[in-house]
Structures are given as C-alpha cells and as structure tokens.
Design goal:
11% of the residues lie in helices and 32% in strands. With 88 residues, it is mainly β. Strands 1-3-2 form a 3-stranded mixed β-sheet, with helices on one face.
Length: 88
C-alpha cells in the first residue's frame, strides 16, 4: 500500500492497493477483448494481433478501499515456454 499520496489541501489520501495481473494464452482466444472490457467497460469493435505486450489500468473503489489494477497482456504467439504449459 502507498501512504505518500497527498491531495491539494495537504491531506493524506486513502491508501491505495495495487494489483498486477498477467494474461497469457494461445492466439485468438480473447485475451485482448477480456482486458479491454475490464478496463473500459465495453468490448472492442475489432482487434488486431498483439505484438509484444499491451497494458491496461483501472482504478476502483471497493468497500471504501482504493484499488488500482494493472493488466499486462503478453503476446506469446506460439512461443510458450515450459513454465506456461499446463497439464490437466
């Protein structure tokens, strides 16, 4: 939590919790649509293949707590490493 934020009147703001989420997966499964929907509240009309990393951020207030969520979407395009292979 960050306690160093001060508003214009010199009053300390409510502490903020920060969450960072990484979205990975196969091409064409909807990672971009999911992240876009979370950040903007609506689905994109069309998307293009991601090259590298996309980032979205959303600030929320939940039960009086200030929360900032950062979404990182990785375009692995078939280069999945062993750490990303899930076996059921």
């Amino acid at each position: 939590m960050f306690y160093d934020k001060v508003d214009e009147d010199g009053e300390r703001e409510t502490p903020e919790q920060v969450f960072k989420i990484i979205i990975i997966g196969d091409s064409g499964v909807g990672k971009t649509c999911l992240a876009h929907r979370f950040a903007t509240g609506k689905f994109p009309e069309r998307t293009e293949a991601t090259i590298g990393v996309d980032f979205w951020e959303r600030k929320l207030e939940l039960d009086g707590a200030n929360i900032r969520v950062g979404l990182f979407k990785l375009a692995l395009s078939g280069l999945m490493c062993d750490c990303c292979n899930f076996h059921g």
